[in-house]
Amino acid sequence: MKKINTPLKKEEIGRLKAGEELLLSGIIYTARDQAHKRLTRREKIPLNFKGQIIYYCGPAPKPKGKIMGSCGPTTSSRMDEFTPLLLKKGILAMIGKGRRSKAVIEAIKKYRAVYFLTYAGCGALLSKYIQKAAPVIYKDLGPEAIYKLEVRNFPVIVGVDTRGRSIYD
């Protein structure tokens, strides 16, 4: 399986193909509905997301002795209304589950980004790939705060590549 590191590079993700399985290492950021609403209401995003990945995830409270609780993907289409603006502001990839709208696929093509899928229903397993985790902004949102995660060999599948080819087609 191919390995890829963050921060992402446009040339590297430009070579990825829909359906390709990867192991992702580096920094990713979690963000769900409420964080997306706050991010897109502001002229300037309070974090430098250029070349970064947003993981549609709201982690569960961490059990004693663990880095993070269960952290499976949430349904990506709930973030579709916010995604084109965040891609315009520099996000290069998203991780989630499920189909994306035609508008999001067009934005992925326009900004040469990529949409990754990860395994739904496996949040406890996915937490094992997290090396470090800390909330960085919107801490008042609890599990919907934006967390900075350091991951190693986090399993993803290219759901929509930079050319707009989707595994759902």
Task: Describe the model.
The protein has 169 residues and is an alpha/beta fold. It has a single domain (2-160), classed as Fe-S hydro-lyase, tartrate dehydratase beta-type, catalytic domain (fumarase). 20% of the residues lie in helices and 28% in strands. It has helices at 10-14, 33-41, 83-88, 102-111, 123-126, and strands spanning 2-5, 21-30, 53-55, 93-96, 114-117, 130-137, 146-160. It has a 5-stranded mixed β-barrel with strand order 2-3-4-5-7. The model has no long low-confidence stretch (mean pLDDT 93).
Compact summary:
The chain has helices at about 10-15, 35-40, 85-90, 100-110, 125; strands at about 1-5, 20-30, 55, 95, 115, 130-135, 145-160.
State the main characteristics.
five-stranded mixed barrel, 169 residues, 7 strands, alpha/beta, fumarase
**Backbone structural class:** alpha/beta
CATH topology: fumarase
Number of strands: 7
Counting structural domains, the number is 1
3D shape: globular
CATH architecture: Alpha-Beta Barrel
Low-confidence stretches: none
Q: Give me the side-by-side strand order of the main sheet.
A: 2-3-4-5-7
**Helical percent range?**
10-25%
State the CATH superfamily name: Fe-S hydro-lyase, tartrate dehydratase beta-type, catalytic domain
User: Helical element count?
Assistant: 5
Largest sheet composition: 5 strands, mixed, barrel
Strand content: 25-35%
Q: Please give the radius of gyration in angstroms.
A: 15 Å
H/E series, N to C?
EHEHEHEHEHEE
Instruction: Average the pLDDT over all residues and give the rounded result.
Output: 93
Question: What is the CATH class name?
Answer: Alpha Beta
